[in-house]
Amino acid sequence: MIAATERTGDDVVPFTHEELAAMLGAGRSHTTRVLQEFRSRALIETRRGSVLVRDRAALKKVACNCNELVKSHFDEVLAGVYPNGGS
Asked: Max Cα separation, the chain?
């Protein structure tokens, strides 16, 4: 979710639980439990067909370093494609 908000500049991520689960290679029920935990910490708000990131900094703190690895990879692969270097 962090990567999506950073790329789009929008705190609304237009994915359902099912779509997030498929992208993560996880089961929908597990994805829903994680989203519920994030919601209970006031990190996100779930809506029909989307997730609103309420506290991006706090969400980054509970995330693994995967976001930084993905960001670094895309910055390298997409260097020159986007005006700000892919970020």
From this structure: 40
